[in-house]
């Protein structure tokens, strides 16, 4: 029978045998998978694990600072890299979703590789790959259609000539969470909604500007904090806000406004492959609409996405 305790024990032993006294480098994302994988590797080899956490400027509000601090508290040997301007620069004027993903994935690899070359004697690359990633990267990028290129860190191992350490490769998400709980990882990580690698870039329809990122971070923050306060955060699989590339007329006091629209998205799902729109209470949606329009400059209209997957996807890009 599979138990988290036995899995942790066996996995730590296996990593010790695989890595020995060599060094491992690993990129952290702030998500459940990379965090649990890093902590397992850390348990096995301690200070021989070197972690890198990149700020691509497309994370949620205050996420970079908060998560970096938590990693340090966990005793992980982590280096934070502020690469915001690099990402904003290369994304300027780009509105095609797949192009955005390509640029972000490529830059991520560049930044990571550059940091990794400063480290000497690295023989292994740690990754938080889980079983659905293994299946999806086969089917999603199959020969006939590319639906969405889920970037993560694909392509790195070949480029860097390193062996992989992937402790979660045969686990499903719920098992990863159970393992995380077993090794004492905080609920800040374990209960977190999935968040796409390209981050807010694929929730800003059209071209990205730092101002739009800021606007969306503020709106997203109101929504996510609102969900938590209302006890709804843990009832949905994933939630977020999308900044639409349209402006519309509104009225604020006796001023006519012409500002942007934000769409709220919340879905229930088991694995993200199919999803239903979450039937959030009208009162809650009304409060979110008021709060966002009152607090976030540049937004005068809020809509709720009532599409399920399929035929829609969870993200809008
Ligand atoms: P979709 O939009 O395809 O999303 O229904 C399914 C799940 O995958 C996440 N997602 C991504 N994750 N890189 C990622 O790491 C990506 O390019 C990407 N696109 C979508 C999405 O947030 C949802 O959890």
UniProtKB/TrEMBL annotation:
The keyword Nucleotide-binding applies. It catalyses: XMP + L-glutamine + ATP + H2O = GMP + L-glutamate + AMP + diphosphate + 2 H(+). The keyword NADP does not apply. Its EC number is 6.3.5.2. It comes from the Bacteria. Pathway: Purine metabolism; GMP biosynthesis; GMP from XMP (L-Gln route): step 1/1. Catalyzes the synthesis of GMP from XMP. This is GMP synthase [glutamine-hydrolyzing]. The lineage of its organism: Bacteria, Pseudomonadati, Bacteroidota, Chitinophagia, Chitinophagales. The gene is guaA.
